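Checklist before submission:
- one chain only
- standard amino acids only
- sequence pasted in full

Submission:
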Amino acid sequence: MPEAPDLKVIVDFLNKRAKGLAVDSARVVKPSVVRPLAGDVGKDIPGRTLDGFERRGKFVLVSLSGGRMLAINPMLTGLFQWCSSADKPFKRTCLVLALSDGHDLRYLDDKQMGMVYYCRPEQVAVIPKFKDGVPDVLDDIPYAEFKQRLRPFRGEIKGVLTRGDFVTGIGNAYADELLFEARIYPFKKSTRLSGEELRRLHGAMKPVMEWAIAEPERRVGEDIHEKIRDFLKVHDKGGQPCPRCGNPISELTANQRITSYCRRCQPGLLIRN
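Returned file contents:
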């Protein structure tokens, strides 16, 4: 799943390379992922200019001239590709925007789980799963607000982090990284976090996210469809030594979601607590 750091890298790249370009043609390859709320994509987008790119939580918003937008929620399997218009499309290509400089901006989705909404700006707020008004993980959230916002949630802390109602932009991988940095057991109920644990979690957010942006930004080049995650400390590193203590990293899978953590650095019991 693309998360805040991944999408930030993509948005920064596209604002440098694609902003200001005109769309020569638009082709919907997989109609199941496209929701045309403001007109036919193939007919209405050509001739419009890409006015800018923005990330909101786990969405990428593409502003188009003439009061139109693409609001893209990649979900678990969606990716963005920047390539020459002459490049052969992948089988997972869902939408192709051919641009005036000879490049394509393509949306890829192997499982077709994501959604691309073609809409007017005022329609964005009613799009399913768009979390308007929720603080973003890359924002400077004051500790008092952080603590107050967490208070209504009663589930396991990892689930609270990923659901998007408390803070937006955190998915499965970076929830593992944040909790490792804060030394918090991922299955601990949020209501049972100590004051010290809350402080550590709040303090981990900005540095972990900044680190998670810097490394992919340095390595990605133009291959923005490639997900760079090999530098992560614990996520998907089951059995490898913990970078902090050397203990083997534990890995559990539930509901098709991997949770990776260090039992020594993040102690807890795998029971309802």
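Reviewer check: The chain has two domains: 4-126, 143-261.
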